Amino acid sequence: MHNYEPSNIIPRTQLEQNLGEQINALISASHALNVRTAARFDSSLQPASFLIIRWLFSFGPTSASVLAESTAMDRSSVSRLVNQLKLMGYVTRETSPDDRRGVLLSLTDLGRQRTIEALKEKESVFYERISKWDDEQLIHFIEMLKLFNGYDHK
After folding, report:
1. What is the structure's pLDDT at 6?
2. CATH class of 12-118
3. Contact call for residues 55 and 97 (beta carbons, < 8 A)
């Protein structure tokens, strides 16, 4: 593990490279865990389907266009995956209360329950990794991630 005390002067370019390596490790580990979580949700589905499920679980009912933009998928892929999820009973379509012509997609009770079950494994992996951290370390990590992700607006 690297020691980044101020007394150990490390060139900024090396620090940025080290940060890039750690971000890449986080993204890779997160992707692998997402694939395993998707398989736990329903092994017959593509992992991209679980990305839609996970988004709806976190943010609630939304339109297909918002889903496409938020998940960085093209609209036709989202439409195809949503249709499959509807047929399997995980997602439902409802008329938007704000715009009677609009359609909102949301999880069914079955979809929500299966998501909760699938996420238990994912959460346990992350909870295990932070289990030895004290509250101050966890607060600092959360705040640094917020800053990095551009969510530093209080």
Report:
1. 59
2. mainly alpha
3. no
Q: Mind giving me the DSSP string for 39-93?
A: HHH-TTS-HHHHHHHHHHHHH-SB-HHHHHHHHT--HHHHHHHHHHHHHTTSEEE
What integer is the mean pLDDT of 66-93? 96
Instruction: Please state at what angle helix 47-59 crosses helix 75-87, rounded to 10 degrees.
Output: 80
Domain ranges of the chain: 12-118
* pLDDT value at 2 more than 60: no
* Tokens read off for 44: 């017959």
* Beta carbons of 34 and 40 less than 8 angstroms apart: no
Residues 92 and 80 sit within 8 Å (Cβ to Cβ): no
Q: What is the pLDDT of residue 5?
A: 58
CA dihedral 78, 79, 81, 86 (to 10 degrees): 130
**Residues in contact with 89: Cβ distance below 8 Å, sequence separation at least 6, in sequence order:** 108, 110, 111
Would you tell me how many other CB atoms lie within 10 Å of the CB of residue 62? 18
